[in-house]
Amino acid sequence: MSKKAWIIFVAICVAVLGGLVFFNRKDKVDVGSVDQGKILAASPASGNIADHVFGDTSGKTVLIEYGDFQCPACASAHPNLKEVTEEFKDKLTFIFRNNPLTTIHPNARAGAAAAEAAGLQGKYWEMHDLLYEQQNQWSSADASQRSTLFSGYAQQVGVKSLEKFRTDMAGSAVNEKIDYDLALGKTVQVSGTPTILLNGEKIESSVWSDKAKLKAAVEKALN
Known about the structure:
Blueprint: H1 3-26, E1 52-55, E2 62-67, H2 72-87, E3 93-98, H3 108-119, H4 124-133, H5 135-138, H6 143-157, H7 162-169, H8 172-187, E4 195-198, E5 201-202, H9 205-208, H10 211-222
């Protein structure tokens, strides 16, 4: 083997090994010491990963959704969750964690990345809401169409730098946050979306799909 061919061979081996290490780490996010039922604050232990919190930040009464932005059921649940969390925002803590089901929703992880990238510019909840409201527009888009649509959404919600948004979507901070959320979901056996927990107890679909029942469940938890 010539010297040039040997160098190329070594370079390929290093690249493949690096990829294997990356995916191995991705599947082994350590959340063993994390209480997933509480607000996750940025800390060295969490790799400075923190929850997105809407409403009360005391964490006394906590509603957590493990959701997929391409999931039709999540989009269906969104209006009820938005209205109830808005109504009780002074007393209720709402946390959204990513659980993209990429085997059935190929654009789901990209949607999560768009929300997280917007969040790095202070526009998380605006993008979160818009992705659900416009789900039919982007859910079946190809990669190029999706990129154009998400850039348009970013401008619509008011991110300061579109270039930063695009870079962050593929960046390590965003991908680590999504992987961390997925790992947290595994601790409570999230197998489908949305999985919604109120003070650690899973809420049945018959409750979160009915605004009156969801409101009653929240009021009971608050009292």
